[in-house]
Here is the input.
Amino acid sequence: MNSQTSSAVRRDTDICIVGNGAIAKTTALGLAQAGHRVTLLIPPKPAAAAAHAIGEQPWDVRVYALNLTAHTLLSSLKVWGALDAARVTPVESMVVNGDGQKPGDLVFDAFGAHVGALAWIVEDSNLNQALDAALRFAPHIEIVQGRATALAVSADSARVSLDDGTVIACQLIVGADGGQSWVRGQCDIGLDYRPYHQRAVVTNFSCELPHHGAAMQWFTGQEGIVALLPLPGNRVSLVWSAPDALAATLMAETLSEMAVRLGTLCEGRLGALRPLVPELVKDVPLALIRPHAMVAPRVALVGDAAHVVHPMAGHGMNLGFADVAQLLATLGAREAHRGLGDERVLARYARARHEDVLLMQVATDGLARLFGADVEPLRAARNLGLNLLNKLPMVKRRMMAHAMGR
Here is the structure.
């Protein structure tokens, strides 16, 4: 594998992947291992990157609850085994808590689903380090640093032009460049965009009481949705989908003050919470982004470039990995006379992903609206619904199977 800054030349490849996150890297690995020549186009790196301190890395505030689909895909690409296993936590149960005077609750557990784990909590840095290591030794992959300026397609090829004059010529372009996808914009794919007027505030805490591998979520009405995900040891990762005004307050106060707020909202379920050292916190605006298509002539979208959902279910990244798995399967199953960018092949990929993506969009958006309404009759109804659902084991098993990617 060669990694170098692009010069003013034409580069010929089978597939050009635009993006620099875990989904883009996984796509590159999967397609290269299938025997295709792959160019991974990443943004130029900053002139001076910060040096990593020697010793234990701080706990990343960006974590993913990866399901069976993601686990299977990453295992098949020899990436899962390269993760730092000491920093990966299996989720043994999931507890959803309602709000109000008589809050409902819903519990899922691995034993009831007949699996070893419902999901695995993995830090973004841990995942990307394993992917970067795999990329360094992967054949058929060239990494090019550059800024794309134009995308053009013809009957027999596609081209990405860079700001230094370089042209990457290929059969297929994969847009894996996030929710604000440049590739999607170049294809004139329309989209529905609706802000939730919330921000996801993420940070990590130590907890006084053991979490027992439980992922816990509280729907709090006016204060948004609070999720505590298990990390190794007595540690948890917070994802607080807070209304904009509250998010601004949370970001302005100390993490110790935030810990006190959490202790009240979470009813002391984990005892006293304390910020991890070094103290790190980030916030990200939340919105529903629904592109009108996942494909265009000689272009396929994967990950957030293809769909952005509310993080309450923790499945945005899982949808992306399912995209990658389906794209690999669809391209691998195409007829010998059809090329990688064949219109019918890409249409098959889009059709295969339509139902799964739509179901997750509708489910997360519906729940965000339902639990965001601060009306007492509706609050009572949704809590009753949680309690009723908790008493329907067959329905719960089907929900768990879908969430796990089975």
About this structure: The chain is about 35% helix and 30% strand. The mean pLDDT is 88.
